[in-house]
Design brief:
Blueprint (H helix, E strand, L loop, with lengths): L1 E6 L6 H11 L3 H11 L5 E10 L2 E10 L2 E2 H4 L7 H6 L23 H8 L3 E3 H10 L4 H21 L8 E3 H21 L3 E4 L2 E2 L4 E4 L2 E4 L3 H6 L5 E2 L10 H10 L2 E2 L5 E10 L9 E9 L17 E10 L4 H13 L4 E8 L5 E9 L4 H11 L6 E7 L3 E9 L2 E10 L2 E6 L1 H10 L6 H8 L1
Parallel strand pairs: 1-7, 7-12, 8-11
Antiparallel strand pairs: 1-14, 2-3, 3-4, 5-6, 9-10, 13-14, 15-17, 15-18, 16-17, 19-20, 20-21
Helix pairs in contact: 1-8, 6-7, 7-8, 7-10, 11-12
Amino acid sequence: MKTLYLECNMGAAGDMLMSSLYEICGQRDLFLKKMNTLFADSGLTLRASTITKCGVCGTHMEVLIDGVTEDATSHGHSHDAEDATSHGHSHDAEDSSHEHHHEHDDAHHHEHDDAHHGHPHTSYADVLSQIERLDLPKRVKKDAAAVYRLIGEAEAKVHGTSLEQIHFHEVGTLDALADVVGCALLIHLIAPERILASPVHVGNGFVKCAHGVLPVPAPATAELLKGIPFYTGSVTGELCTPTGAALLRYYAEKFCSMPALAPSAIGYGMGSKNFEIANCLRAFLGEADAEDDGDEAEDDGFAYDDKVLAISCNIDDMTGEAIGLATEIFLAAGALDVYTTSIQMKKNRPGILLTCICELSDRDKFTGLFFLHTSTRGLRFQTFERAKLESTFEARPTSYGDIRIKKSSGYGIKKEKPEFEDLKTAVLKNECAVSLEDVAKSVR
């Protein structure tokens, strides 16, 4: 089986992934010509440079805007990581290990510098529109849009807002967009049958920003790495960026040690800074046994995907309407799930076991909501290890309009199903003259 294995021993960023894939691509000239044609109207140019780290030669992809690299446009200022993430970009710091300026928003202080430099912003919908207009195969555009959605959703969650409210700095968007589209195009050209990756080294320490100091991995990166094995290691600095994390999350089927592989090509994608360890991401392309997925051992800390908290109580003195209202309130507050179970309590009283599943970090919030909206005087807490399939959404055109498809995969399983709310909307728009099954069949 044609297998692509990504070795992330020094983290992952969009340009490093693109550089390593470029080295193993058999159509390099076609790739560069295509990319520079796609973004010609935007003044963006992609340039592949050969650099050396610890005596090893590799490729460093530079994205130039109007002939100038993104680091030059920053005028030597440190970037405002907090503001950057609010506009959909990764976090920068003076000690950031890769200096991935294409992933950093030239934010400085928005209310002043944006006005001075005239840097406009663009919405998430505008980014999708940009991708859709590109002269690329449908699959490449679909993949690029899906990666951007992952980034946008992570930024929205970190900042407590919606995907529609996330905005991207125009220069930074072009820079990061080139990375995402470039990786999607290269993988399309290389056409591996499966993609595997190592656990991700994220670095350690803190990221300095204008409004304070953030831990590594930065919040948006940590959100994207949920369920992915990563470690901090001994290198001080930010090794994994949101774009790198999103690309790995979308493309890698599994994070494991490298399987027995007969490589036909090895690519070295170089970062900017120098360390005692070669600052590169390696891509191995070759044939491997279809059943050999590497060792996903428990000592890698990946025996399960994540943990969730279950909060529960017994109730025998609330009406069904009141319990229903509490359920709705918990779900609106961000509960992963809420359910009731019929139980028999002391003195043979019938009762309800009310259970709320939530993130570990939301314990205090839901404890307060339980005491406020139910009659209980005591709660029980349980922590569960959870395995889960990762899900993405795809809008599929039908005779009833676009229907979102939820596609889930992991553990060797792939599933998909249409979103009920979209099916319901289609039925209502047709004045109930069609059934749910009719609309579902049109999707299939």
